[in-house]
Protein 1
Amino acid sequence: MRRPLLLAVPVLALIAGCSPDTPPSTGATTGAPVSSAPAGPDYASWAAGRSAPVADPLYPSYGNAGVDVLHYGLELSWAPETKTLTGKATIRLRAASDLTSVRLDFSQAYTVDGVTFNGASAAGTVADNDLTVPGTVAKDAFATVVVQYHGTPVTVPMPSHRGDVEPLGLTVTKDGGLWTMQEPYGASTWYPANDHPSDKALYDIAVTVPEGWAAVASGTAKAQEGTTFRYASADPVATYLTTLAVGRYQKETAEGPRGIPVTYWFRKGVDDKLLPSLRKGPQQLAWLEQRFGPYPFASAGVVMVPSESGMETQQMITMGTPDYGTTKPAEFAKYFEDDLLHEYAHQWFGDAVGPATWKDLWLNEGWATYAQHLYANERDKITAKQWEEWARGVDSRLRGRLGPPGNPKAENFAESNVYMCPALMLHQIHKQLGDDAFFALAREWAQRHRGTSQDRASFIAFVNQQTGKDFTTLINTWLDSPTTPK
Ligand SMILES: [Zn+2]
């Protein structure tokens, strides 16, 4: 997610006056082949969606550590006049422990029209934002749950005090469009989901809309059939990194580094002024590839939505138009481009390699924020020394107000401390290692752990192993200290 607003202005004021790996402790995908079920679907074809789900320490009511979804097949249709979403979700899963029922997060806003469990009609009960389907699955065995539903989407409150805080989940616009920002949870406002970052899965999303409308989702675009738009994610995706937007969109295509297809979806007469910034996508991707290695996915893009935030949704960034507190177009463009760079950087840090639980959000935001500042500092000719001096002041105020970044409070989701404080921590490692070793470290982290979920322990073990130095105390101090470390 984009960094909270307060950080933009101080930078302006200043201008004026990251070999073999240690196995991660939790959440890493094993990569082991999934054995085939005796009959029925070929679950082995979704083996890349295999994860090691864990319970969340901050938001325990979301996610189910007993369920490992391998693949979501979503067939959706949207009727703008009646504001009705009609859906059929086909969920291929592995039991991560012995199950007597399958429980998924799902909004109570929908009427469940039918449920099957391994092809047989089953009961599906929705209560407390959970869909429960009775059915026995032994640990490591597979099952298929199909849920048909319809209704008008309803958002859920975001557990945060950020300035740009908005409700989470699928949002209906006045003119009948749709968009979503859904970190840390909110995917379950549009499909039954194991709504937790430790359970990544593959996706096929098909969305049917009326003539003249377009549907945009995370993943790589497949052939459009009539007014049905199709997207496929061949790399595992966490639920919070999926997106859906429906509107009267215009589309522009470009080519990124190594021929990566890049697509911008914008609203004519609304987002046109941002096109020059959006068109910097290939250049920003090239800048990131130089430092962090190949872009980890088959396609990239941005969909513009009526939000005040921005989100690193996988292969298709969901971008709003934030209030940067400026009326100057050039200044607005600069901040907007910084935010875009931040969301593109997340494709390496957060998307390809994600956090096992929300306690490690710093691992996403620290890297994306640091990349963003390196980019902006280079452009604005701010030295590393000037930047650190400013950043230490910000860090100190944030620790005082919000506490250290390594143990965030549940009610303060994605506040500024999990952005700037870990970015400054990465800067300390950068200073000690120098450019070559630091960017080799960053590249190896992102490239070697693609498709997995990681945590603090696995990060520290990796850094120490990769550098041959002991950064344990440095990292833990920067993550846990109530004041800015010396
Ligand atoms: Zn972010």
Protein 2
Amino acid sequence: MTQRQVKPFYISLKPFLDHNSLPRPVNWPSVFGNDHPLEVEIGFGNGEYLAKLAEANPNINYVGFEEYCERISRTLRKLSRVPGGSAGSGSNVRVLRLDVRPAFNYLFDGPSINFIHCLFPPPWPKKSDAKHRLMTTAFLRLANSRLRERGGMNIVTDHKPHAAWIREQVPGSGFVLHETIVPACYGTKFERKWAEGGQKEFYELRLTKAQHIDVPHKEGLPLKHFTIDRFDPDGFVMPDFSDGEVAVVYKDLLYDPKRQIALVHVLVHDEHLLQNVRVAIVKKQDTWSVHLAQGSMLMPTPGIAKAIECVKAAAANSGTHT
Ligand SMILES: C[S@@+](CC[C@H](N)C(=O)[O-])C[C@H]1O[C@@H](n2cnc3c(N)ncnc32)[C@H](O)[C@@H]1O
């Protein structure tokens, strides 16, 4: 009887960075242990291209941003198979689970990236979804500000109207655009999908930095602790908050009466960033402390600061009904 081959499931977490534990901005040479040129891949999906680039260019450091956990796991599996140990401590790849927009705003300060790769960004073809498209003029300006002199960005799309829409975003971004039509040549999952569906031509948009655009680094806000005199979990009512810049939406409250700890779950929206946040209300002798719960993985945005304030106000108000 032949033994069933078991797929190796070993994943080294070494290339994975928890953005919450990084200084902002990040000192990338100290992360990699060298000052090799830095390249970024946005939306690396299952990581085929990132692994290929890292293997082919051991003297370039790569940072990838992706939002889906499953795709990050697949990428970590691929990186662990790269000969030369791309998952090892001397690796030239790091991956983060993060939207590239807050990443560029908070984690990078000034021109530090040599090149940006972005293969098949979602085209959001419906007009009503256009607000989700990534390559707006504002984002191109942000990318430009983080690129070094003569740096560039390569965007590839299967979707002709999306290529035309990106072209319209370029004026005012400090980039010059060179467009070409290419065959399937990147070897990624999404490229294979379109190629297997019969698509032979893809739209490659090469942006070269011609003029520097300054978009200042965003500082993370110091998040406050509040102290309130009274708190009644049964009387807790928290209205949603929105001022056009940030929105805070109450989801639920869990209370442990034995330990006298409440966890308030809120959704916080800042620009494109949606964060699930837990705010703790903890009994301390005669008072209650209101602060961000430990382990919340987040960017300390104005929305988070507002969420803590909203919970504090609702908690303080709950106590007045008892
Ligand atoms: C159509 S898939 C392409 C994936 C991969 N590049 C490929 O060619 O197979 C687009 C990927 O971009 C990621 N993505 C979209 N917007 C992003 C953003 N703002 N920041 C980081 N990743 C993003 C998505 O999660 C998704 O995995």
